[in-house]
Design goal:
The complex is a heterodimer.
Chain A: E1 2-7, E2 9-11, E3 18-19, E4 26-27, E5 33-35, H1 37-51, E6 57-64, H2 69-78, E7 82-87, H3 94-108, E8 112-116, H4 127-135, E9 138-149, E10 152-159, E11 162-169, E12 172-176, H5 188-196, E13 199-203, E14 216-221, E15 230-232, H6 235-244
Parallel strand pairs in A: 1-6, 1-8, 6-7, 7-13, 8-12, 9-12
Antiparallel strand pairs in A: 2-5, 3-4, 9-10, 10-11
Helix pairs in contact in A: 2-5, 3-4
Chain B: E1 3-6, H1 16-25, E2 32-38, H2 42-49, E3 56-61, H3 70-78, E4 86-90, H4 95-105, E5 111-114, E6 116-119, E7 122-127, E8 132-137, E9 143-147, E10 166-169, E11 179-186, E12 199-203, H5 211-222, E13 225-228, H6 230-234, E14 255-259, H7 265-268, E15 276-281, E16 294-297, H8 300-313
Parallel strand pairs in B: 1-2, 1-4, 2-3, 3-10, 4-9, 5-9, 12-13, 12-14, 14-15, 15-16
Antiparallel strand pairs in B: 6-7, 7-8
Helix pairs in contact in B: 3-4, 5-8
The chains are: A alpha/beta, B alpha/beta.
Amino acid sequence: MKVLVAIKHAIDPNVKPNIDPGTGQVDIAQVKKAINPFDEISLEEAVRLKEQGQVSEIIAVAIGGADAKDSLRHAYALGADRALLIETETKPQPLAVAKLLKVIVEREQPQLIFLGKQAVGEDYGQTGQMLAALLGVGVGTFASAIELNGDQVVVTREVDKGTQTLSLKLPAIVTADLRLNEPRFIKLPNLMMAKKKVIETLAAGDLGVDLAPRFRVVGNSEPQQKPGAIQLASVQELVAKLRQAEVLQ
Amino acid sequence: MSVLVLAETDGKQLKPSTYQALTAAQAWQLPVDILVYGSELDAATTAARQLNGVRRVLVAQAKHLQHPLVEDVQELVLSIASQYTHILSAHSVFDKSVVPGIAARLDIAPVTDVIEIRAPDTYVRPAYAGNILSTIENPQPLQIITVRATAFKPAALREGNGVDAELVVIDVPPTRGLSQWIGEQLTHSDRPELNTARVVIAGGRSLGEQFDALLNPIAEQLDAAIGATRACVDAGFAANDLQVGQTGTIIAPELYIAVGISGAMQHLAGIKDSKIIVAINHDPDAPIFKHADYGLVADLFTALPELTGALQQH
């Protein structure tokens, strides 16, 4: 069985980006980037399925600039069999990303498609659901466990107050939540080997997809900060303050 | 021009986030219809018909909607979407799985997790783990929006003896059969839902094995939901679904009590819209104090039982 994993070369989740005062846009040009953590979890899951003998080939696909090759090399080092970059200088919105991925899915015909539940950055969290709808296949979002079972994939999902289990007909889409697994540590020889591997590159503009943005981010601001806590001396004083603020029922 | 709001039920009643979504939908000052779907809808329909600002309640009742599946709800909404210029839902776990797919099928880009509708086509949404608020202009002919429920007040019941909103029973398309509901493992269903609770108390890893013993009595007193940090969940002291933060649940309660939580960036991203934040920590230099309204430097293992006692006297 073939598996496709979508990879985003995303900003470091621990970095707080700045707003460029000139343009009002978020300045991420200088921010350190790496494979989106949820995509790394997706890939790890695919690799585990391959190790169990349930998957024959893992294809990693990224959409972005030439720098996204770094994340695809990471994917090779983790265990991807093939890597594909859909190159674009602009930053396509999730709908366009889903349409680009659809082109690749139709070409490669994977049975299982993994995406992260969201990417660090704009935090849209839409692409997997859109891709499923465009392909007309089932989707299991926020997966914390999966199991292949004949022509089905059984997905345990994180929902309000617990988990839910769904069975999806293959081909299907799964979006990975934080606790699907813990990605393995990549060994240096694997990283060295990954550098020698071929990354197939396609131009996004050649795939017949409308890449124009549908909405515009016209401004950005930083949320208001609280001035800092008033330090209280005792539990009694705390309860008195909360009563004063009328937040206790 | 009119608005379709997607309701969500817990199987019988409307969820609190539906009331909040309905308030958000009033921003356009257009007629608002609300779609209620499921297998047992009497209570939810009755409630929806009495809410302020509802023109019609569309009822989609079918056995296969008892445990609604993403693909089936998409099909249902698509069957009536052409009558609307605006489609809105809460950014709940279920609807954020459903709405982007509806939008994609209609070739529309949705704007998700909106916290403010500033103008009919202009929205504010958090990005970069809540560190940035982005203003978005959306010129598309169909506006498809999900809203962060806690950013909006719940819609109220209609006052006086107004007439109930019109009820329209609609046809339900058959199941697409792409997925199947197998089961649910709900852990603490007697507590309010984390994302809409009025009060949340959350603990960090330092509570250790005492996590439940220390937090449960206070949660009970305050009718609060319980949350936990990522480190606390990773260490196995709390269930996955309790995680509060950018990668867990984003909350904005009236009162948030952070116990033994240092204040990592990804945690702060999930709590910063809480109205009042109380931090209790033994470390006076914990970053959480910079983001709290009230701080108490104390040993957790004595302060929490003391707090339980003080609340009991209340």
